[in-house]
Design goal:
Blueprint lengths: L3 E4 L2 E4 L2 E2 H5 L6 E5 H15 L4 E6 L6 H10 L2 E4 L2 H9 L7 E3 L6 H10 L3 E4 L2 H13 L4 E8 L21 E2 H12 L4 E7 L9 H20 L6 E3 L16 H13 L6 E4 L3 H4 L3 E13 L2 E6 L8 H5 L5 E3 L9 E7 L8 E9 L7 E4 L20 E6 L2 E6 L4 H5 L6 H4 L2
Parallel strand pairs: 4-20, 5-6, 5-13, 6-7, 7-8, 8-9, 9-10, 9-11, 11-12, 12-13, 15-17
Antiparallel strand pairs: 1-2, 2-3, 4-14, 14-15, 14-19, 16-19, 17-18, 20-21
Helix pairs in contact: 2-3, 5-6, 8-9
């Protein structure tokens, strides 16, 4: 919580008291520290010095245009998975020469748009995708830079729903079959083979799967080079894990991760691309919420808050664990008890925090925040149960602004209409 700190028992984000922001914006809302984003980027950037590299921020983690602009100002590239993310990245000022396009289902429209933008490379996920890119490039009289996303069949060790490097996952081309497809790609006049790509998963906290994957991809690149290919980029994907249940940011794992990259690829001058998302944004954001009710059922304590799985899907989807804390700390030795913190959505899965230690004196109207929600938070939110979609606010030192307005029911209704035959009397 480097940029989120308690001062005189009140939570501050940079120089702003968070409870003051609650007077202006309706809860729940997401709150980001601009300088936390910059600090996280700089920590990684400094460690990578000495090699040929590109930090391509994984836009899917948090695609707010102000977040992207912050990283653009730092010199970042972008890893995108949709035309929407690509348009946002370009609008934020990220050079198209620093953008890689991932994802298994690129549409013809998306491919054409990315070709026109002249991105760094497509990370190609299948033979049919390669053929489609080649055909569209031919029709546009263009050349597409590509890398094949190879699947090394490695278990990353994280949650199975965010595993992407096993042969049973939908991502990538089996590494054993990739050489044949590279040879095919070499014969396509509108295709320029730029690199090799892997991405084995997300929220990885063990170096072992990274080490196995990186060695596999290096050996594969050396084999391609021996066959006359000119591989310029090695895209290692993302996956750097963080500790959601600690107040501190431990950079030891990041140091080890970067040292591993430098050690394995020390003899190559190829550009190393990494696609961090969670590491750069998770601890830069919190979800501010308000207590609605306390409820005790058969000695089980429920705390009902106005933020739910529609605002933060991770606990319901991934069994993810987050800390929840008050905006205002009570006096020392204040008694606590365990609560199941739940949202308002009509789903049993709508549990935000299990076994949270909450002040016994907690009451309706108290403000709390769910920590480290800057990644895969607002981007995964929805209007389920016809709920409003939370606003986003960003702080920079003494200044703050709403960077995405709250989407209320009235806003949602603008996109709906009653069928003509139902309007007849």
């Amino acid at each position: 919580m480097l940029f989120f700190k308690y001062k005189n028992n009140n939570l501050f984000c940079e120089n702003i008291k968070v409870s003051d922001i609650c007077k202006k914006f309706e809860t729940p809302f997401y709150l980001y520290s601009s300088n936390a984003l910059v600090n996280n980027y700089n920590n990684l950037d400094k460690l990578l010095k000495g090699i040929n590299y590109l930090i391509a921020y994984s836009v899917k983690a948090n695609s707010n245009i102000s977040v992207l602009k912050t990283f653009s100002n730092c010199g970042a590239g972008a890893d995108v998975v949709s035309i929407g993310e690509l348009k946002k990245a370009i609008k934020a000022g990220i050079s198209s020469s620093k953008i890689v396009y991932s994802g298994v289902g690129k549409s013809n429209e998306e491919i054409a748009y990315a070709l026109k933008a002249n991105i760094e490379q497509f990370n190609v996920e299948s033979l049919e995708e390669l053929e489609t890119i080649s055909l569209i490039a031919q029709q546009m009289n263009a050349v597409a830079n590509i890398a094949l996303r190879v699947n090394p069949d490695i278990t990353a060790g994280g949650h199975p729903k965010i595993s992407t490097g096993k042969k049973t996952d939908k991502f990538g081309i089996p590494i054993s079959k990739s050489k044949k497809i590279y040879k095919f790609a070499k014969e396509l006049s509108n295709i320029n083979i730029k690199g090799v790509d892997i991405h084995i998963g997300s929220q990885i906290s063990n170096l072992s799967p990274f080490k196995k994957a990186f060695k596999k991809v290096l050996n594969f690149c050396m084999e391609l080079d021996s066959l006359g290919f000119d591989i310029k980029n090695i895209d290692l994907g993302g996956g750097i894990g963080i500790d959601y249940e600690s107040d501190k940011q431990d950079l030891k794992f990041l140091n080890k991760y970067v040292n591993l990259i430098k050690d394995i690829f020390k003899k190559t001058n190829k550009k190393i691309i990494i696609e961090p998302g969670r590491f750069l944004v998770a601890n830069a954001g919190i979800l501010v919420t308000k207590v609605l009710y306390k409820k005790i059922v058969d000695n089980k304590n429920f705390l009902i808050i106005d933020a739910g799985m529609n605002d933060l899907m991770r606990p319901a989807l991934y069994d993810a664990k987050h800390l929840i804390k008050p905006l205002e700390k009570k006096i020392k030795n204040q008694m606590t008890k365990k609560f199941e913190v739940v949202g308002t959505i009509c789903e049993t899965a709508d549990v935000m925090v299990k076994g949270a230690k909450i002040y016994k004196t907690v009451k309706k109207g108290d403000f709390y925040f769910i920590d480290k929600t800057g990644a895969y938070g607002h981007v995964m939110s929805s209007s389920y149960n016809s709920k409003s979609i939370a606003s986003e606010v960003m702080i920079n030192k003494n200044d703050y602004t709403e960077i995405k307005k709250r989407i209320n029911t009235e806003d949602l209704l603008k996109f709906e209409k009653t069928a003509a035959w139902l309007r007849k009397k």
